[in-house]
Amino acid sequence: MSEEEITLIIQAFVDAAIQAKQLGFNGIEIQGAHGYLVDQFFWDKTNTRTDRYGGDLIKRTQFATELIQAIRTAVGPDYPIAIRLSQWKMSDYYVKPLDTPEKLEQFLHVLVQAGIDIFHCSTRRFWEPEYEGSELGFAGWVKKLTGKPTIAVGSVGLDDEFTSLYTEGKGAGHKDLDDLLHRLDQQEFDLVAVGRALLADPAWAVKIRDGRVNEIQAFSPESLATLL
Ligand SMILES: Cc1cc2nc3c(=O)[nH]c(=O)nc-3n(C[C@H](O)[C@H](O)[C@H](O)COP(=O)(O)O)c2cc1C
Q: Which residues lie below 8 Å from residue 138, measured CB to CB, with a gap of 6+?
């Protein structure tokens, strides 16, 4: 991507943010996870640039920080900007580019300085410890290191791992939410995002709220087929 193209792309993100605000949305979220464009700049395996958008960890945040600053200038100081982050990539579930809390802190610091308010911390299983020696998951570490509100996501309400849903049709039943609720009580993270459990049962959140956990629907073969 040329520098001119980068400028155009940033402007397109800014235009989208302005439109979202004008339409009445309460905030916006930048997709910076899973190997999408912003994440391609973050990761040294995909960012081999030798200009100011490539190089060490901090230099690889240059595209994101310019993007965040441009959106912040356009939407004003009081409009929430979230960013979705993940260690894993669609091309590699097991990669962990930020392999120490110190690297994660350096990385997050520049994003906070640029204007991020909320971190949406994408994992495949929210309960898995991010680093040895602590039970904290990715969202827990990000909150601890930044003090910012964080969103946890990854197999909330599901029994098994992400891929087995496709390969074996497992992972679709609901599991108890005690660990999730405990972590919320401990303020490990502030918000919870739910994906597939809601696809299986659109009334999932209402049933949780009303204590009707036993009525939650698992995936049926028909609903599973809609995901494939
Ligand atoms: C069929 C499917 C498509 C997805 N597509 C996207 C996507 O385009 N962008 C994205 O950020 N996440 C995508 N995800 C990931 C979800 O946003 C979410 O992080 C993931 O499903 C974990 O939440 P869950 O375990 O509650 O489903 C997708 C997930 C599924 C199952």
A: 86, 87, 121, 122, 123, 126, 130, 152
Atom of ligand 1 nearest to the CA of 33: 11
Which residue matches tokens 């690889």?
Answer: 60
Domain that holds residue 175: 3-225
Number of structural domains (the chain) is: 1
Check whether 61 has a pLDDT greater than 90. Answer: yes
Q: Are 153 and 183 in contact, with CB atoms under 8 Å apart? A: no
pLDDT digit string (tens) for 28-49?
A: 999 999 999 999 999 999 999 9
Please work out whether the CB of residue 196 comes within 6 Å of at least one atom of ligand 1.
Answer: yes
Q: Given phi > 0 = left and psi -120 to 50 = alpha, else beta, which region is 55?
A: left
Q: How many helices (H) and strands (E) does the chain have?
A: 10, 5
The CATH number that applies at residue 36 is: 3.20.20.70
pLDDT exceeds cutoff 50 at 162? no
Of 182, 175, 165, give the one whose Cα is nearest residue 224: 165
Determine the pLDDT at residue 105: 98
Q: 87 burial class (0-12, 13-18, 19+ CB within 10 angstroms)?
A: buried
Task: Check if 121 has its Cβ closer than 6 Å to any atom of ligand 1.
Answer: no
